[in-house]
Amino acid sequence: MRDHREPPGHLAPHIPADTWNRAQATGQPVVIVVQDTTTQGFPWRRLLLPFAIVGAAALGTWGVVAALCWLMDVAAHTATVIAGAAGPIGVGGITLKLARSK
């Protein structure tokens, strides 16, 4: 019975055992081709995360500024409506008219 051995270790698990054994018996060299998956270009993925974080922070800042502007506008309109409804305010004979009548 023939001894079927696997290639030693995890050198190349894609080589079939019979090919390995035939190469060992005949002395024929086994050529292992390893494909490199690294790219030679610039790693754009490394820059994507910082730009995404900066972009999100910028959009968030503009959102906060817009919300504050809207809040100040609402507060100014509310103060105008309250002042128009209250009429003149007087203290000790001095009256202060807060809003012009229409």
Mean pLDDT score: 79
Q: Helix fraction?
A: 40-55%
| Widest sheet: strand ordering | 1-2
Span between termini:
113 Å
Are there runs of 5+ residues with pLDDT below 50, and where? none
N to C succession of SSEs: HHEE
Based on CA atoms alone, the radius of gyration comes out at 40 Å
What amount of the residues lies in strands?
A: 5-15%
Structural class: mainly alpha
Shape: rod-shaped
Query: How is the main sheet built?
Result: 2 strands, antiparallel
Number of strands: 2
The DSSP helix count reads 2
In short:
The protein is mostly helical. The protein contains two helices and two strands.
Notable traits:
two-stranded antiparallel ribbon, 2 helices, mainly alpha
Question: What's the layout of helices and strands?
Answer:
Layout: H1 17-26, H2 44-86, E1 89-91, E2 94-96
Antiparallel strand pairs: 1-2
Task: Outline the structure in words.
With 102 residues, the chain is mainly α. It is built from 2 helices and 2 strands. It has a two-stranded antiparallel ribbon. It is rod-shaped and about 120 Å long. The relative contact order is 0.06. The model has no long low-confidence stretch (mean pLDDT 79).
